[in-house]
UniProtKB/TrEMBL annotation:
Classification of source organism: Bacteria, Pseudomonadati, Bacteroidota, Flavobacteriia, Flavobacteriales
Stretches of the chain forming a coiled coil according to its record: none
Alphabetized SUPFAM superfamilies for the sequence: ACP-like
Source organism of this protein record: Chryseobacterium geocarposphaerae
Record's protein name: Acyl carrier protein
Any Pfam family hit: PP-binding
Limits of the Carrier domain: 4-79
Length: 84
């Protein structure tokens, strides 16, 4: 899957499912600060990512994510690993 499609899908569900202001989403924005999600929201996000991309993200994955670019890259890498 192309990165542009990953970004579009992620941004769409963040805006629609998690009520994030789309104007605040940028590659270098801080993921946790911008999203302001609690632990239950992260569980919901894992479910949405799995249903949209067929990959699972764990707690260790989220700990490594600082920016939205990191988030997109992690999903992209998980998809690549799954398809390898």
């Amino acid at each position: 899957m192309e990165r542009e499609k990953i970004v579009a899908i992620v941004n769409d569900f963040l805006v629609n499912e998690f009520e994030v202001d789309g104007d605040e989403i940028s590659n270098d924005a801080n993921l946790k600060t911008t999203l302001g999600l609690d632990s239950l929201d992260y569980i919901d996000m894992v479910v949405v990512i799995e249903s949209n991309f067929g990959v699972k993200l764990g707690e260790a994955d989220f700990k490594k994510m600082i920016t939205f670019d990191d988030f997109y890259s992690t999903i992209e890498n998980k998809i690549a690993e799954k398809n390898a």
